């Protein structure tokens, strides 16, 4: 039985402020096989790593990312909300992480946060950055906006994309294949044995999110999914080590 990859959700976001370099480095230190991140675009067109469309929850600032320049965004403290230990942590740009991962055998899952704000040119900019750093081969792009995934495949058919979804889908591998997707990224409670079996039969890997409880991690780890996205890479590592 092939063991699933353990992918740090926004890094090791149970232990460090999400989507920061501190969180990414912590995930790697805890043995993560990959990282899942969220990318949006600043007012002046930079690729910034942040989950929310606004900075209010995860920084000491306020406002929409699309309304702030990179210089304004990087003045914000993105760590103190989590713990004083991380005071001064910054919102990173995608290139910061790509530079950190250069030469490592790490899977990078980039979620394009363009379901609410339709950032024009987001797909092109991400593909350009991956090309510069020569990381297309170890990256999967995902989104809840499946039109964006269609666009990506049109721009670069070789890049892997995965459909994010929450609701239970009937034969999701058929839908995914119909739009040229390479994988399924469902919420964990919609992952059933029959879904895993069907996906395997149709060579459609499953990367499921966000699995945090030990019992859930152990259950999912035994279902032969391709990857488990978790806030606790150490728990995930322990779960797969029991297989």
Automatic annotation (TrEMBL):
Q: Enumerate the Gene3D superfamilies for this protein.
A: Phosphatidylinositol (PI) phosphodiesterase
Q: Name one GO biological process term.
A: lipid metabolic process
Domain GP-PDE per the UniProt entry, residue ranges: 4-240
GO MF annotations for this entry?
A: phosphoric diester hydrolase activity
Q: Which PROSITE patterns did the record assign? A: GP_PDE (PS51704)
- InterPro entries linked: GP_PDE_dom, PLC-like_Pdiesterase_TIM-brl
Q: Known PANTHER family for this protein?
A: GLYCEROPHOSPHODIESTER PHOSPHODIESTERASE, CYTOPLASMIC, GLYCEROPHOSPHORYL DIESTER PHOSPHODIESTERASE
- Put simply, this protein is called Glycerophosphoryl diester phosphodiesterase
